[in-house]
Amino acid sequence: LDLYPIIGLTSNITSKGMVKGLGTDPTLMQADMDIEVLNSEIDSIRVDSLYFSSIIDAKFLTIELESIINEAKGSINGTLDLENEEEPIYNLEGNVENLILSNFTKDPRDSSNLNLNFLADGSNLKLDDLKGQYEISLLPSYLRDLALDETSIILAVDKSGIDRDINLSSDFVDFNIEGQFSPTSTAACIII
Length: 192
Description:
Blueprint: H1 4-7, E1 11-12, E2 15-22, E3 30-42, E4 45-57, E5 60-69, E6 72-81, E7 89-99, H2 102-105, E8 112-123, E9 131-143, E10 146-148, E11 151-160, E12 163-170, E13 174-179, H3 183-191
């Protein structure tokens, strides 16, 4: 399957899938879904294998994803609760092994072997409304000629009305920001 006419990227996709259930209204749908992609390519990104499985119960989804893409092995498992469209709730955990950045950037200077675990247990996708706990654990890795030791970063974000509390803790820095502010505006000030 070549998706160029639809997405504007050259692709050669070999896949199969199955959806079994009741209803077409996403708010009421009851279904099981399985998708498998093997030996495919999308815009020079090689997909050796990708398995996606989901159980849909109205606006509640259980998901499992396992893949090998450009030699990087990854997985994500968890749940998505879309009952409140303004504030979706998610609990996702996953990992990435053998992420070789140069396979994606095509720049040999980006040699790497990155390995990490991650967790996202929160609500909302808009930065200014985000709440929850987010964690990234870097496992022994390297980037270019730099060996990277094991380390973790934990971000706890809370919002009550217009008051925010953001707490970041890691092996190398800890900080806490409390008050009435917009994370989007604050990030823009820091970047500029």
